[in-house]
Fold these 2 entries.
Entry 1:
Amino acid sequence: MRTGRRLRLGVLGSGRGSNFVAIADAIEAGVLNAQIMLVASDLADAPILTEATRRGIPTYACPIGRFKTKLEPEIESALARQLQNAEVDYVILAGFMRVVKAPLLEAFPQRIINIHPSLLPAFPGLRSWEQALNARVSETGCTVHWVDSHVDSGPILGQAKVSVLQNDTAESLHARIQLEEHKLFPQVLQSLAEKL
């Protein structure tokens, strides 16, 4: 990659996009040397697309597929082409609720980054804050990691810890984890930007 320029990001999300907002706000505040080239979603009505449009960032919505946990290969290939056309350095998963498969992994080898709401390798998969509560651990948190062909198993780029309080509910714990996510993700991306 070339030096002396901003990190070029493609962001994928399925929901509100709170981590996308945190990244975009960090860019606007001048603490993250990056530019969001494209925001894409597997859901055409995802609020993350509305927020990206409000910020003047190009968007892409995948066609509706047959599966809930993954994209059909042709749909994922089309998404990969959109990201390649946007010339992104890294693909950022910000609440993207699909398992990334070969088309994206091959188009962006070791260039896809996810944030997960636990201290991996503990509690991979869905609703990890509930897993942490049920396991009665005293500490959980969030992890930014490279994406590979397995779920929540790629090399770790950064982590932030969150104490589990005695009176925590799933909602209160998740809310505190998200606060840490919103700080950690831009910090990790800035460390990558500094290596460009």
Entry 2:
Amino acid sequence: MLKRDPATRTSDNVADEIGRYLRWDGHRTWGFVIYRCTYESDSDWARFMEALRSELHLSLEHYKGLDLLESFKLTVFEDKDTLDDASTFSVREHFKEWVKTAPYQEQGKGPGLSQRYRYCIQVDDEALMTVLSDEYDGWVNLIKLDWERDESDPGIRDPVEDLTVGDVGWMMVDVRFFMVSNYYYLRPSYAWEYEYIRPPQVKCG
């Protein structure tokens, strides 16, 4: 494989690693699935999507990996009747159903270890407005597919969607990093335990 950046080891280049993961899984496409859970303004949503595309381009450009745009697939679920203000629980259930068949339809084979079929992104009213603000702290919600509540956790923390346990199955991730860097970091099976930060803290980088 040709190095995208001759001055950097391929193992230190996120774009090289994502490309390597695609080959290992035998997949054609990569990228998180996004759930739109806010419907106050179509124009705001369009601005949000443009911001995502801009961050994706900037991130891949940084790693000299713009060629990965050819295999990137931006899948967005939009349904005001079922997803408007939907909880992370509802989004997860929909995602679980989608994952049952999506890898075979998109890749022609099973999910492998692809992050695309293990995590999804939820964008609610609050997340949308943080991204559209003039500040540099915009975030979205990253949801883990196979999360189950830890019944051994006594649950003494402030409630998040009525959960007081430590791991609530989702976290808030900085919009500048989630499309590329966080996608890369979430590849290993142990990644969630290592990367997880409980809301309302935001995972950066």
